[in-house]
Amino acid sequence: MKLPIYLYGHPVLRKISEDITPEYPGLEGLLADMYETMYASDGVGLAAPQIGRNDRIIVIDASPLAENYPELQGVKMTLINPRLEVLDGDKETRAEGCLSLPGIAENVTRVEHIRLRWQDEKFAPHEAEFSGFLARILQHEYDHLEGKVYIDHISAIRKQLIRAKLNNIVTGRTRCDYAVRYAPRKK
Ligand code: NI
């Protein structure tokens, strides 16, 4: 089942998400729905806050980017309760987009190497180091679990330049070809 994507301005995107346990109800179905939602909206990653849940769950399928980044071919990951650690100060700037910010793409500077600890869908523990574009995707999705979005990393000037677009998203006047949930109206 496809789920609506919560857009920038919604408070669910600003909360720190909580770890989940093996007792989490309906996890298998939720993961299937998250993958279906991500594929239907042409995303390469989706974090649970983007479907309205402040739970530490991320799904990634980076294969669509393999044309530009061959190392991403077949990279599909389900991350439960991830913890991310920055490994070095080398930084790289690349354009990013986000399903919660339709119609916007901005350059973001991020570190190149990270270490991630996580559990898979069976709650088995994993730990690995990542670099390159996958490290960027992981940092972007991980930000969602920490109540951040990628435009938090851009300059005040860049943010000013996209202010009208951001306002349209916040006030429900953006156009989107997937189902979305806007921020509640301010009273
Ligand atoms: Ni995103």
Could you walk me through the main structural features you see in this protein, from its secondary elements to its overall organization?
This protein is 22% helix and 26% strand. The termini are far apart. It has 4 helices and 9 strands. Strand 7 (113-119) and strand 8 form a beta hairpin. The mean pLDDT is 96. With 187 residues, it is α+β, with helices and mostly antiparallel strands. The strands form 3 sheets. Strands 2-3-4-7-8 form a 5-stranded antiparallel sheet. The chain is globular. The chain has one domain: Peptide deformylase (Peptide Deformylase), CATH 3.90.45.10. The protein has helices spanning 27-40, 132-145, 156-161, 163-170; strands spanning 5-6, 45-47, 57-61, 76-86, 91-96, 106-111, 113-119, 125-131, 180-181. It binds nickel (II) ion.
List the helices and strands and how they pair.
Blueprint: E1 5-6, H1 27-40, E2 45-47, E3 57-61, E4 76-86, E5 91-96, E6 106-111, E7 113-119, E8 125-131, H2 132-145, H3 156-161, H4 163-170, E9 180-181
Parallel strand pairs: 1-9
Antiparallel strand pairs: 2-3, 3-4, 4-7, 5-6, 7-8
This protein binds nickel (II) ion.
The site of nickel (II) ion (NI) has 4 residues, from helix 2.
